[in-house]
Amino acid sequence: MTEADAGGSEPTAVTPAPAVAAEKSLWHYLGLVLSAAVLLLVIALAVMLIVVPKATGSIPLTVLTSSMEPGFPPGTLIIVRPVDPSDLRLGDVITYQMQSGKPGVITHRIMAINSSSAGDLTFVLQGDNNSEPDLEEVLAEQIQGRLWYSVPFIGFVNSAVNGENRAWIIPVGAVLLFSYAGYMVASGALAAVKKRRGAQP
């Protein structure tokens, strides 16, 4: 017979073991760290996809074919920065219009640079994964820019937020990000307040 049975009093509440409480606290902080890491990753991607290109006049493009594998497989996001054709060098990766003034573009590597007697430049390009150079030499006015940086697998995200989708995806994404950040700050502050109250005698 227990002491509670003998005296008729109510059972005494059992406090959690210190090890259990420490484990819960560890998982709590681990969750906060992981959440913060995800938030920072999303913000970094937003900066690379939207802010940097817009601020520098660069063009975000998605690699759709395998012509530049293995360095730039399909789905790679490339940021193409405007460049003076006279500053281009052998080995540079550039984006050019298939036909001057038309929207279709190709991103390949410069294999040769030719100059006419009048000083006009033309460029011979070839995909890293292609056995032959492109059929026609590229004129200076066709060049859209030189590759600045690339991010693997993110190109399809860029395609999704381009065009009409950008009008609603960006505002919704910004609201979600700030809401999530606010939730993280509020939950952290609330946990700190509860901890302080629990520590008071």
From TrEMBL:
Recorded GO MF terms: serine-type endopeptidase activity; signal peptidase activity
GO-annotated cellular components: membrane
Keyword annotations: Hydrolase, Membrane, Transmembrane, Transmembrane helix
Superkingdom to which the source organism belongs: Bacteria
EC number: 3.4.21.89
Sequence intervals crossing the membrane: 26-52, 169-193
Protein name, UniProt field: Signal peptidase I
